[in-house]
Write a structure and sequence with these properties.
The protein has helices at residues 16-20, 52-63, 105-113, and strands at residues 6-9, 27-30, 79-83, 90-95. It is of the alpha+beta class.
């Protein structure tokens, strides 16, 4: 599709980023101050483990071979954003509601299809 990918992570425990590299070809930025996560970080504390959806997501991941780890912070929720070229703005915003909450693949593809090519004007060159 020719769309650049970027990841923003909050920590790099052991060799996680290196192990993730074969699955993600874009740039990965480490945000140690967690500024990308906003002025109010969205977390799901220990009570998140009593939610049925969290357990369903855990079982799904486990059945697919994901083992995870218990190192690191672990309570800040993530998300997926599709940001268009120039003044298109945010085309998709998916904020995790609970651990393991995945973005809808069709919504993601639809948002990526809406990205207009960035064309530079002569004054910008």
């Amino acid at each position: 599709m020719g769309i650049p990918l970027y990841a923003v992570i909050k920590e790099n425990i052991k060799q996680e980023v290196k192990a993730f590299r074969p699955y993600f070809k874009g740039e990965i930025f480490l945000d140690v101050n967690k500024r990308f996560y906003g002025p109010t970080q969205r977390t799901l504390g220990l009570m998140g483990f009593v939610r049925l959806g969290v357990w369903k997501n855990f079982i799904r991941a486990w059945r697919n071979g994901f083992t995870g780890n218990t190192a690191g912070e672990g309570f800040i929720l993530g998300g997926v954003y599709v940001i268009g070229a120039r003044d298109q703005g945010v085309l998709l915003e998916h904020r995790e509601k609970e651990f393991g909450d995945k973005v809808d693949h069709q919504s993601l593809l639809d948002a990526v299809e809406k990205i207009k090519p960035s064309i530079r004007t002569k004054s910008e060159q």
